[in-house]
Here is the input.
Amino acid sequence: MGMIATLLDFVFGNGRNVVRETAEVFRENAESGAARDHLRHTAALAQFGDEFLPGQRGLFDRVMDAVNRLPRPMMALGCLGLFISAMVDPIWFAARMQGIALVPEPLWWLLGVVVSFYFGARHQKKGQEFQRYMANSLTQSSALLRVSDQSQPEDTNPALTDWHHSTR
Here is the structure.
């Protein structure tokens, strides 16, 4: 009985399990693999969640964003309205067009400059915010890739490493 107890203590004693440690050389520990998969999945979900968080913007920014979305539909509907009004009441339409023809050209230029610079500046600001957001997302994703690369063991077989580099 003493010899069997010594053998069992050698295999399972001192908090070790030689059979399990030997089996893990040939097969991945399912519990550890599941834990790594869970961490990777949680990190990916956190990254996706961060991408869709609403920004902290004030009322003025939200109103101006809504106003920035209006010019094209308003111009299209306005053109259709002009055609309809010209067909419905040509005299009324002609009187309005004569009034618009009396506006001096420098005033049209001034209106174009004000509208162009205001909406152009808003467009540029939104473009820069988007670039800043993309840069932050790339920084976070590269940090995630570094963490996932550190969790994978390094290849120590030089022949396998050469073959892997030659296939890329």
